[in-house]
């Protein structure tokens, strides 16, 4: 896994929030309605498959498993393949446990901007659009095939030093794909829910972009 900052960003970025800083009042109303439709009661779980493209690696790092919101500020990311690893946020702490290694724990107080990500994720799952408006600006687009894309940009300068942009693709009230552009140039692309089974054996950015658009 990556550093604590990136771990928490990945945990919290699934179905990340949107705000009403869209192109106009009608778009803002559509965005808020979409936030309400994405809300889920806890516990909420979804399969995921992730390809992480890193400058230091020739091939993407591919993992798969399950993401879960357990209620309140408790989140869990379980990687089942290629090796088992569990990352958890609870009671203001982040813990990581990987097979064959000692557990790691650190406090959210070390990184207030990551607490902001957590708050935003929990607000989204509760369908609280007004709370989400504090953290991100958003561009919302949709096509006639019921496909929509949300492009999110952090308001917080410190958060932007970790995550520069997030694109979420979905249809109806289901997100299918999340593409997180990190400030250092690395990119993580997650296929969510039923789309997790569509991860190619050898993924490329272009192939995943096509899948994310419903292709």
In short:
The chain has a single domain (4-212), classed as Lipoprotein localisation LolA/LolB/LppX (outer membrane lipoprotein receptor (LolB), chain A), CATH 2.50.20. It has six helices and eleven strands. The chain has helices spanning 4-13, 25-38, 112-125, 129-132, 157-160, 205-212; strands spanning 44-53, 61-71, 74-81, 85-90, 93-98, 104-107, 136-142, 147-154, 163-171, 174-182, 187-192.
What is the strand and helix layout of this fold?
Elements: H1 4-13, H2 25-38, E1 44-53, E2 61-71, E3 74-81, E4 85-90, E5 93-98, E6 104-107, H3 112-125, H4 129-132, E7 136-142, E8 147-154, H5 157-160, E9 163-171, E10 174-182, E11 187-192, H6 205-212
Antiparallel strand pairs: 1-2, 1-11, 2-3, 3-4, 4-5, 5-6, 7-8, 8-9, 9-10, 10-11
Structural commentary:
By secondary structure, this protein is of the alpha+beta class. The protein has one domain: Lipoprotein localisation LolA/LolB/LppX (outer membrane lipoprotein receptor (LolB), chain A, Clam). The chain contains six helices and eleven strands. An eleven-stranded antiparallel β-sheet has the order 6-5-4-3-2-1-11-10-9-8-7, with helices on both faces. α1 runs parallel beside α3. The N terminus is likely disordered.
